[in-house]
């Protein structure tokens, strides 16, 4: 593996000095999204079958294409700003988010209930120190990780009282740093690693899955990581113990993510939408303090998207066990939230 170059090999300290990764929507674009979102809410389509052609966005088409280009050939992320979601109800905000997602990819199932729209919100006072705590349902700082899709998108409905900044690190920069310091450890990233599936979804059909951390094929670099999920998988029967060298590689990977200048932090405002190519960057979040009122809790909507642009990946890369929405099952009908008014309400029993 050779050092990786390109626009996706960035440093947070460089991007913090510039704001060209933030896109401000125009008034005409905001109006089109609001109008289309209102029609979506009124039509109440099944989230499993609705398509982008059902809800065209002619005024936003060039902007959405630019978002996709930033994901595929740019830095791997973009922050879209300007939606006045404080004036929308959650169903309208969620509808706008879902329609934008349809124009960038195909929504994926995010849990074994079949939900296509999920939530990042603290539904209890649990911490990650508890074995059954879900990362998306706590207020702790999260380690840098990848989600289980080509693209992960977050819409901020309500911000935290304090903290809760989103943090990104370039996967290419992480690997370049490892190659410069310990090429022997960097080589281990190409091998399969065991990830804790149960920690991500309590209803998962298996305890773990495997994936390389780095895919390098056809001259294309991709990364899928989550050191906490790799370490957590050690609790499951059938998972081999990490070798001293593997532990050292994980420690170094973690250490680099926290070095000054590596990560880019961004404070979410209500209405912000972050689009991220999972293969280009890892994401995290700082710890946060919620408002005391339940209705003002920090609340993000999340989409996982399949975005098939022909990116080559090594076999078994990423959470390849995740099903697309076309693989909906009969049992999903009574369990999943497939209409927008239901989908924007978080499941309160998750993370309890």
Descriptive notes:
The protein is α+β, with helices and mostly antiparallel strands and 352 residues long. It has one domain (12-343): Double-stranded beta-helix (4-Layer Sandwich). Helix content is 25%, strand content 21%. The chain is built from 9 helices and 17 strands. Strands 1, 2, 3, 4, 6, 14 and 17 form a 7-stranded mixed beta sheet that branches. A hairpin with a 2-residue loop joins strand 11 and strand 12. Helix 5 (171-181) packs across helix 8. It is globular. Residues 56-304 form the TauD/TfdA-like domain. It comes from Cryptosporangium arvum DSM 44712.
Could you list some keywords that capture this structure?
single chain; iron; 9 helices; alpha+beta; Double-stranded beta-helix; 352 residues
Low-confidence stretches: none
CATH architecture descriptor text:
4-Layer Sandwich
Shape: globular
Mean pLDDT rating? 91
Radius of gyration: 19 Å
The count of β-strands is 17
**Class, according to the CATH hierarchy?**
Alpha Beta
CATH T-level topology: Double-stranded beta-helix
Helix and strand composition category: alpha+beta
First and last CA, distance: 43 Å
GO molecular function: dioxygenase activity
Keywords: Antibiotic biosynthesis, Dioxygenase, Iron, Oxidoreductase
Cofactor: Fe(2+)
Protein name: Taurine catabolism dioxygenase TauD, TfdA family
Give the SSE layout.
Elements: H1 12-15, E1 22-24, H2 27-43, H3 61-73, E2 77-81, H4 90-102, E3 106-107, E4 117-120, E5 142-145, E6 151-158, E7 162-163, E8 166-170, H5 171-181, H6 183-188, E9 192-196, E10 208-212, E11 214-217, E12 220-223, H7 227-232, H8 244-257, E13 264-266, E14 273-277, E15 281-285, E16 288-289, E17 299-306, H9 340-343
Parallel strand pairs: 1-2
Antiparallel strand pairs: 2-14, 3-17, 4-17, 5-15, 6-14, 6-17, 7-16, 8-13, 8-15, 9-10, 11-12
Helix pairs in contact: 2-4, 5-8
């Amino acid at each position: 593996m050779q050092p990786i170059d390109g626009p996706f090999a960035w440093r947070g300290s460089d991007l913090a000095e510039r704001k060209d990764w933030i896109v401000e929507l125009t008034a005409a674009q905001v109006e089109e999204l609001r109008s289309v979102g209102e029609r979506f809410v009124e039509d109440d389509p099944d989230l499993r079958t609705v398509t982008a052609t059902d809800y065209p966005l002619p005024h936003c088409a060039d902007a959405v294409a630019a978002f996709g280009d930033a994901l595929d050939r740019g830095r791997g992320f973009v922050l879209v700003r300007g939606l006045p979601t404080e004036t929308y109800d959650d169903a309208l905000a969620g509808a706008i988010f879902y329609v934008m997602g349809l124009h960038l990819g195909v929504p994926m199932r995010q849990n074994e209930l079949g939900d296509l729209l999920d939530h990042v919100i603290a539904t209890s006072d649990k911490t990650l120190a508890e074995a059954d705590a879900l990362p998306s349902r706590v207020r702790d700082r999260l380690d840098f990780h990848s989600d289980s899709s080509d693209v992960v998108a977050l819409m901020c409905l309500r911000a935290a009282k304090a903290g809760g900044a989103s943090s990104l690190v370039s996967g290419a920069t992480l690997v370049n740093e490892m190659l410069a310091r310990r090429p022997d450890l960097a080589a281990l990233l190409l091998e399969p690693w065991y990830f804790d599936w149960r920690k991500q979804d309590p209803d998962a059909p298996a305890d773990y899955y495997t994936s390389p951390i780095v895919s390098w094929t056809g001259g294309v670099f991709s990364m899928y990581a989550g050191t906490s999920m790799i370490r957590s998988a050690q609790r499951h029967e059938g998972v081999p113990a990490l070798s001293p060298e593997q532990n050292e590689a994980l420690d170094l990977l973690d250490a680099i993510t926290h070095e000054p200048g590596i990560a880019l932090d961004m404070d979410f405002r209500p209405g912000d939408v972050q689009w991220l190519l999972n293969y280009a960057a890892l994401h995290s979040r700082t710890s946060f303090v919620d408002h005391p009122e339940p209705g003002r809790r920090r609340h993000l909507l999340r989409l996982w998207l399949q975005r098939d642009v022909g990116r080559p990946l090594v076999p078994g890369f990423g959470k390849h066990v995740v099903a697309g929405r076309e693989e909906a099952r009969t049992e999903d009908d009574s369990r999943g939230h497939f209409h927008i008014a239901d989908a924007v309400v978080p499941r309160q029993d998750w993370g309890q």
